Amino acid sequence: MSSPPIRVMVVDDEALVRDAVGVLLGLEAGIEVVATCGSAVEALQVSDVDVAVLDLQMPDTDGIELAMQLPEHVRTVIVTSHGRPGYLTRALESGVSGFLPKTASAERFAEAVRVVADGGRYVDPDLAAEAMQAGDCPLTPRECDVLELSASGAPIGEVAARAFLSPGTVRNYLSAAMVKLGAANRHEAVQIAQRYGWI
After folding, report:
1. What is the rounded CA–CA span in Å between residue 150 and residue 146?
2. Nearest 10 degrees: Cα torsion 118, 29, 103, 181
3. Which of these, 102, 107, 181, 198, is most buried using a 10 Å CB contact count?
4. What are the sequence ranges of the domains in the chain?
5. What pLDDT band is residue 131 in, cutting at 50, 70 and 90?
6. Which CATH architecture does the domain made up of 6-134 adopt?
7. Cα(27)–Cα(149) distance, rounded to whole angstroms?
8. DSSP letter at 104?
9. What's this model's pTM, rounded to 2 decimal places?
């Protein structure tokens, strides 16, 4: 007697990507795509799945946050066009079971779904190597927050107001982040932190 198919949900705000991944996975033996969703709100209405394939960045949330809100029995695979080491580390620490770039082949997607459904972990080898090379984030959570708020180019006063800090404290956090990242200014610090997926 054959085992039941792996029930999969695909969540991506881009309809073309969502539909393509859904169709390709649905062609694989032993995999049944039972839902395709364009938002976290839609995805949270679906519970009868074994594996959720989640886009990392969506307008209403990110895939890692969504993974933590899904029922405990649902195993999760993050797919992204932003394969930065910080995202991978954060995903694995949050209990995500798989992490793949959107450039992966249909066979790799199917393999990841099968491994994850079977209780294992599947991480793209290139992303894993890059994460090991990058090492851990040297910034404190507060330094990351202030850098992220600075990413839009907002003035110090605005960053301070949004972070509920004084302008002097914001300058101190930015200065510390610049030193740790070897950046010449806060804009370069933001770029470095974004490149590694730390913010």
Report:
1. 6
2. 0
3. 198
4. 6-134, 141-195
5. low
6. 3-Layer(aba) Sandwich (3.40)
7. 43
8. S
9. 0.68
From 15, 50, 56, select the one nearest 36 (Cα to Cα): 15
What CATH number belongs to 141-195? Answer: 1.10.10.10
And the tokens for 94? 């949050």
Structure-token match 């960053």, residue found: 159
Q: Is the pLDDT of residue 68 over 70?
A: yes
What is the band of 85 on the pLDDT scale with cuts at 50, 70, 90? low
135 band by pLDDT with thresholds 50, 70 and 90: low
Residue 68's nearest CA partner among 40, 88, 100 is 40
Segments of the chain assigned E as strands: 6-11, 31-37, 51-55, 75-80, 98-101, 122-123
Give CA–CA dist 53/101, Å, rounded: 12
Measured in residues, the chain has a length of: 199
Q: Which of 121, 74, 133 is nearest to 93 (CA)?
A: 121
pLDDT digit string, tens, across residues 140-171: 878 888 888 888 888 999 988 888 889 999 99
Show the tokens assigned to 127.
């992303």
Between CA 146 and CA 139 the distance in angstroms is: 11
Distance CA 17, CA 66 (A): 18
